[in-house]
């Protein structure tokens, strides 16, 4: 059931920043966004302490959603490829529930970004371009969680993320990196044949190529807005 008055604290744990925003049920921001830099090394202890600090900045919310850049099952993290230390078995949602006293759902960051971008018709796909490459796939608005396409082999013995992640962009420059993003999209489209492919993440602003039909860029705020839909798709 969709609740109309509920206030959601939506948290996004990223490679460079940990962001929070409180939204009403319609996705309207109820307070200014608050961001702290992601601690380095990004160990579970350090990241959880910063997440708690971001959550404590807000006082008026009923529930929490959190996006994490790794595999998350039933609120528990099992990988954190671009983070440090051992993220396997970190009970992210339970830790946040304990620290805020509010119910929390946790999911992969690209999955949450996708919830904020999709329309809910047919097969829809989301790729995020940031520190890493996130991927999500939905059928009629329902998520198939933890796609982790970024670590799949792509070209010359390297993964998608190694060609289109931020380290590759820095090394190749925006023009050549954009060419690799296009090549990745053109490889992915005929496999899943989505009705639409949404591109999200902070690095979409560096793209210098025209995009194929049915591929569009979504604003970064989708990552935060998706935190509401996470509560509407049962199975989380
Ligand atoms: C992680 C994914 C994440 C993506 C974007 C990848 O390195 O494995 O889980 O969605 O980065 O943050």
Task: Outline the fold blueprint.
Blueprint: E1 8-13, E2 17-23, E3 34-37, H1 44-56, E4 63-68, E5 72-73, E6 76-77, H2 92-100, E7 104-108, H3 109-117, E8 123-129, E9 133-139, E10 142-144, E11 153-155, E12 158-159, H4 160-164, H5 166-172, H6 174-192, E13 196-200, E14 215-217, H7 222-229
Parallel strand pairs: 1-4, 4-7, 8-13, 13-14
Antiparallel strand pairs: 1-2, 2-3, 5-6, 8-9, 9-10, 11-12
Helix pairs in contact: 1-2, 3-7, 5-6
The chain binds beta-D-glucopyranose (BGC).
Description:
The protein is α/β, with parallel strands linked by helices. Helices cover 30% and strands 26% of the residues. It is built from seven helices and 14 strands. It has helices spanning 44-56, 92-100, 109-117, 160-164, 166-172, 174-192, 222-229, and strands at 8-13, 17-23, 34-37, 63-68, 72-73, 76-77, 104-108, 123-129, 133-139, 142-144, 153-155, 158-159, 196-200, 215-217. It has a five-stranded mixed sheet, with helices on both faces. It has a five-stranded mixed sheet with strand order 10-9-8-13-14. A hairpin with a 2-residue loop joins β11 and β12. The radius of gyration is 17 Å and the shape is globular. The chain starts with 7 loop residues before the first strand and ends in a 7-residue tail after the last helix. The model has no long low-confidence stretch (mean pLDDT 95). Residues 69-70, 81-82, 108-110, 128, 130, 132-134, 148, 150-151, 161 line the site of beta-D-glucopyranose.
């Amino acid at each position: 059931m969709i609740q109309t008055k509920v206030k959601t604290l939506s948290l996004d744990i990223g490679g460079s920043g940990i962001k929070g925003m409180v939204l009403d049920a319609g996705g309207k921001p109820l307070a200014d966004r608050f961001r702290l830099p992601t601690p380095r090394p990004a160990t579970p202890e350090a990241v959880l302490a910063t997440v708690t600090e971001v959550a404590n900045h807000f006082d008026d919310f009923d529930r929490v959603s959190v996006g994490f850049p790794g595999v998350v099952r039933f609120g528990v993290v099992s990988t954190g490829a671009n983070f440090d230390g051992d993220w396997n078995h970190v009970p992210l949602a339970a830790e946040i529930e304990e620290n805020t006293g509010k119910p929390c759902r946790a999911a992969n960051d690209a999955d949450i970004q996708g919830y904020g971008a999709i329309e809910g018709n047919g097969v829809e796909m989301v790729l995020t371009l940031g520190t890493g490459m996130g991927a999500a796939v939905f059928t009629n608005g329902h998520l198939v969680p933890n796609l982790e396409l970024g670590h799949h082999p792509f070209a010359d013995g390297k993964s998608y993320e190694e060609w289109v992640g931020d380290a590759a962009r820095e090394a190749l420059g925006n023009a050549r990196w954009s060419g690799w993003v296009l090549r990745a999209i053109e490889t992915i489209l005929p496999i899943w044949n989505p009705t639409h492919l949404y591109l999200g993440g902070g690095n979409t602003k560096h793209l210098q190529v025209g995009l194929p039909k049915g591929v569009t860029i979504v604003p970064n705020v989708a990552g935060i807005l998706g935190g509401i839909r996470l509560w509407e798709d049962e199975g989380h």
